[in-house]
Write a structure and sequence with these properties.
The complex is a heterodimer of chains A (330) and B (195).
Chain A lengths: L6 H25 L19 E2 L2 E9 L2 H12 L11 E6 L12 H13 L4 E6 L7 H8 L1 H8 L2 E4 H4 L2 E5 L8 E5 H5 L2 E5 L1 E5 L3 E3 L1 H4 L6 H10 L1 H11 L4 E11 L7 E11 L2 H16 L4 H7 L1 H8 L10 E8 L1
Parallel strand pairs in A: 2-13, 3-4, 3-8, 4-5, 8-11, 9-11
Antiparallel strand pairs in A: 1-2, 2-12, 6-7, 9-10, 11-12
Chain B lengths: L3 H23 L14 H7 L5 H9 L4 E3 L12 E3 L18 H5 L17 E4 L5 H4 L5 H5 L6 E4 L2 E4 L9 H5 L7 E4 L8
Antiparallel strand pairs in B: 1-2, 3-6, 4-5
Classes of the chains: A alpha/beta (330), B alpha+beta (195).
Chain lengths: 330, 195
């Protein structure tokens, strides 16, 4: 004979079981039974190979032939072979934050850099970017002509917002951020080549290589940077994701206001360096000079994120430890 | 044979059902931001058949800002499209949909009508200074940075100022605003409807 159970007892039983399950679930969630957070990763930062007698080399090449200028700029500091080896995975990070051609790295410069890297014949080259929030990175690629360059030269162009997996990486002595969320493609790359556009920025004062590295972090992290303290966060990010080579597009410089609708002044220059802080100082000085600032160097050294990055040892902002190589081509 | 009691029940039911429906449909509705080219609201609610084709087109060809209204927006609005900048901004102007408007092209009934790019204004943005990082701490200005419209958001010193006449309501600033909760909200204030 089957044991009969009253309706009341049955409901009690079910309710009891449900409450226990919910309680256990909540407890388990709190203690992280269902998939613990992955531990944050370490990333090795390679020393800058472009130095001479302990001074960081920065080249500033003026002229009109973009391809020649890019090649000369990298040759002047020691050549691409110093960082790009046959087994390296290269990440090219152009500034393609907007769909406005004035606010992004020009396709000609990107083309010249990609060709230069392709000549060194590394194992893998990818070009990746995560644009400014509110702008579709794929649309930015199309609208600015970067997509055509990638297609012609047969380089993988990655919209990190869509395809990127996010990892957490420990910063090296970061003051505001102990760890930073970044896309896996950037973490995997041995060599990061940064192609910033020389322009003004409303909060960061200038956007050069250090600020451009914000394009390898996901959107929520970008928002957090602004919420916490943008300048310190940029420095913290660069302590671990330090570009190995920076090639600054200063062909058309956005001055006075930015990062959009600034006053465009032809700069006709390309800057290159292995030291992101040093090149940012020199490039910012160049920008302020174009603006007609009274003491451009002082203004450049005063930019908070450049100073803070130097304090973290990302590079040097000591002008006596920077050697500027100026040349003219074409 | 139907009893007297049942007869009265049916009669009362028949009287109350349309009354209830009427009440539900006149319940307060939220003013939602409609896709570009929407006709006037009363007409829109009559013409729109809630097919969701514009929402689908927005996901496929646009950025995916459109979503169907839910019960919280008002019973009469359920299923009609609205712009939600928390999903993505509207790219109808200064973006990938400029001159294309996939949502308008997908509309089978004419609830969304073709509009010329310079006539698009789907709303404007409202600012809550108490939540704004620029007001609380200084700096930020992400909204001014991402705004595609010249003169709509202008930084005055370290604080943004908003010009709702120039704002087209694309919602880029709302998407990008890093404050929690967001210091900006997209409203249909000042919208320009198709006629």
């Amino acid at each position: 004979m089957s044991r009969k159970i009253s309706r009341r007892a049955f409901i009690k039983l079910v309710a009891g079981a449900a409450i226990t399950a919910i309680g256990l679930g909540a407890l388990g969630y709190h203690l992280g039974w269902f998939g613990r957070k992955e531990p944050s990763l370490e990333r090795e930062v390679k020393p800058n190979p472009y130095v001479k007698n302990g001074r960081s080399l920065v080249s500033i090449i003026k002229g009109h032939d973009v391809d020649k200028m890019v090649r000369t700029s990298v040759e002047a500091i020691g050549g691409i072979d110093k960082i790009v080896k046959p087994n390296s995975k290269v990440l090219i990070k152009p500034n393609v934050g907007f769909n406005d051609i004035n606010a992004v790295a020009s396709p000609e410069v990107v083309r010249a850099v990609v060709e230069l890297v392709q000549d060194a014949n590394p194992k893998e080259i990818i070009m990746a970017e995560s644009g400014v929030r509110g702008y579709d990175t794929s649309d930015n690629f199309e609208a600015t002509g970067i997509a055509d360059v990638a297609k012609e030269l047969n380089v993988d162009l990655i919209n990190l917002d869509k395809t990127g997996k996010v990892v957490r990486v420990k910063t090296k002595g970061g003051k505001t951020l102990k760890e930073v969320k970044a896309f896996k493609q950037a973490y995997d790359a041995d060599v990061i080549i940064c192609i910033p556009k020389l322009k003004r920025h409303s909060e960061a004062t200038v956007t050069i290589s250090l600020k451009n590295m914000m394009g390898i972090i996901p959107d929520d992290q970008k928002g957090r940077f602004h919420e916490l303290n943008l300048h310190q966060c940029i420095a913290d990010l660069n302590s671990v994701f330090r570009p190995n080579l920076v090639i600054v597009d200063a062909i058309e410089v956005m001055t006075v206001s930015g990062p959009r609708r600034g006053k465009m002044i032809p700069g006709n220059a390309i800057l290159a360096s292995g030291d992101p802080v040093a090149v940012d100082v020199i490039a910012a000085e160049y920008l302020f000079k174009l603006e007609g600032h009274i003491s451009p160097l002082k203004a450049a050294l005063n930019v908070a994120h450049i100073r803070l990055a130097a304090e973290l040892g990302v590079g040097t902002n000591d002008i006596s430890k920077i050697e500027v190589i100026e040349r003219k081509v074409g | 044979m139907i009893s007297r009691r049942d007869f009265f029940k049916i009669l009362l039911g028949a009287l109350f059902t349309p009354l209830l429906g009427g009440i539900l449909f006149t319940l307060p509705r939220k003013k939602v931001v409609r896709p570009p080219g929407a006709v006037k609201e009363d007409l829109f609610l009559k013409i729109c058949i809630r097919c969701g084709l514009c929402i689908e087109a927005c996901f496929k060809e646009g950025r995916g800002t459109l979503e169907p209204c839910g019960i919280l927006d008002g019973i009469a609005l359920i299923g009609t499209p609205k712009v939600n900048p928390l999903r993505a901004p509207c790219e109808a102007l200064y973006g990938k949909c400029e001159g294309k408007l996939p949502c308008v092209k997908a509309c089978p009934t004419g609830a969304l009508k073709w509009v010329e790019p310079h006539e698009i204004k789907i709303g404007s943005v409202e600012w809550y200074p108490r939540r704004c990082i620029a007001v609380l701490r200084g700096g930020c200005l992400v909204c001014a940075e991402v705004c595609p419209v010249p003169g709509a958001i202008v930084p005055k010193g370290r604080i943004p100022t908003f010009n709702s006449n120039k704002c087209i309501g694309c919602g880029r600033c709302v998407t990008a605003c890093p404050a929690h909760p967001k210091a900006l909200k997209l409203t249909p204030k000042g919208e320009r409807r198709a006629s």
